[in-house]
Design goal:
The chain is mainly beta. It is built from no helices and 17 strands. The strands form six sheets. Strands 6, 7, 9, 10, 11 and 13 form a six-stranded mixed β-sheet that branches. A three-stranded antiparallel β-sheet has the order 3-2-5, with no helix packed on it. It has a two-stranded antiparallel ribbon with strand order 1-4. The model has no long low-confidence stretch (mean pLDDT about 85).
């Protein structure tokens, strides 16, 4: 923003370039009045008056869209961003995951590294995932919200399973028994 800072340094000594500007912005590096680039923390041998201009870290936009709400955050390149926890439901549908510009799925509280402008969209659906566990058997089915499903009988017992010799009694769903 044009702030200047002057520092007196003895001739023929090393000066270590700072990581931040006087107004506390992170720098990518510094450029002298001859166009030479220096990384922050580089030692510079001072033999005469020098002027350095900050090369600022590029700002990136992270946009999070949850239903009708759109929030955009300006962050430094290579910084971290934690995806927020969205409402569990929106317009009667259930939150499933975020989908990023890269078409990958992300869960809330996932930490992402910001390397480009990115948008994350909260995906809501009325399709639910049901996981059925019977002993060592696991079955996953998907069904529309508020739809009825027929709970399968777990089938014949595997005599090699650790639960061998036990009888099937009921399915337990959120502390409610289904026979």
């Amino acid at each position: 923003n044009g702030k200047q800072h002057t520092e007196k340094v003895e001739s023929n000594t090393y000066y270590y370039l700072p990581m931040k500007t006087p107004d506390d912005e992170m720098v990518f590096g510094w450029e002298d009045n001859k166009g030479n680039y220096f990384a922050y923390a580089d030692p510079v041998l001072v033999t005469s008056d020098l002027t350095f201009t900050a090369v600022l870290i590029q700002k990136m936009s992270v946009t999070v869209i949850i239903g009708d709400d759109k929030q955009t955050y300006q962050l430094s390149y290579n910084s971290f961003f934690v995806l927020p926890t969205p409402p569990e439901t929106f317009n009667g549908m259930i939150f499933k995951y975020y989908i990023g510009d890269d078409n990958e799925q992300y869960q809330p509280n996932t930490t992402v590294t910001v390397i480009k402008d990115t948008t994350y969209l909260a995906y809501y659906s009325n399709i639910l995932t049901v996981v059925l566990i019977a002993g060592d058997k696991i079955e996953t089915i998907e069904c529309p919200q508020n739809d009825y499903i027929t709970l399968p009988y777990p089938g014949s017992e595997n005599s090699n399973s650790e639960n061998s010799g036990t009888d099937f009694l009921y399915w337990l769903i959120e502390d409610e028994k289904y026979y």
